[in-house]
Amino acid sequence: MIAHDQEGGSEHDPGTGFDLEVAMKISRVFVASVAVLGLAGWAGSAHADAAAGKAKFADICSECHEVADFAGEDAKGLADSIKKIVAGQTKHKKALKLTDAEVADLAAYMAAGK
Questions:
Q1: Which domain holds residue 23?
Q2: Which tens digits make up the pLDDT trace of 2-46?
């Protein structure tokens, strides 16, 4: 059973001493943190340089791939796939060594398809 604290008016469970007001504050902080991290991830891909991605594509991808094959694809999905190749988690013809910024640039260019 939940009881109200006589002095502060906060709710707590007398059996556990758990303060629901504290739990709600923690929940709000958690939700806000997740939202900020999500926006930070989106912002990182929003600043990708497609021109740099074009140069990188010409250097390492164009031997086997055409950029038009990726036109309209989601840049984040492409970046995730490229990261798996870089990490060796996805089989690929040759090993790739790319920074996160290069992956984002490459994915932005590939998603644009031009």
A1: 3-45
A2: 555 555 555 555 555 567 787 778 778 766 666 666 555 544 445
C-beta separation of 98 from 109 below 8 A: no
Question: Are both 16 and 67 inside the same structural domain?
Answer: no
Q: Where are the alpha helices (DSSP H) in the chain?
A: 20-46, 50-60, 75-86, 100-112
Q: Provide the domain count of the chain.
A: 2
> pTM higher than 0.90 for the full model?
no
pLDDT 10s digits, 43-72: 444 578 999 999 999 999 999 999 999 998
Same domain, residue pair 59 and 102: yes
Q: Would you call 56 exposed, middle or buried from its count of C-beta atoms within 10 A (0-12, 13-18, 19+)?
A: buried
